[in-house]
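We recall that each integer encodes one residue's backbone shape. We quote one record:
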Amino acid sequence: MPYTVQLNESTYLGRTLSCDVADERFDNPAEASAAAKNEAFHLSVQLGLPVAIRIFEDSRIYLSHIMPAPPR
């Protein structure tokens, strides 16, 4: 099944962030998770805000967590 990634600013209800991984489809959850964590880390550093990660298996939420913002 294909896995997709959605990144949001601060919380799962925050603004959806436009990024390369959001346009990709992954063959397994490990690939999706690695790509999402990498992108979320860079966005959290750039924005100075936490980034919420959701990985979907079709339309079902497979995994979700929040990448904290780096200390300032």
Q: What stands out?
A: The two ends are 40 Å apart (CA to CA). Strands lie at 3-9, 51-57, 60-67. The mean pLDDT is 94. The first strand starts at residue 3 and ends at 9.
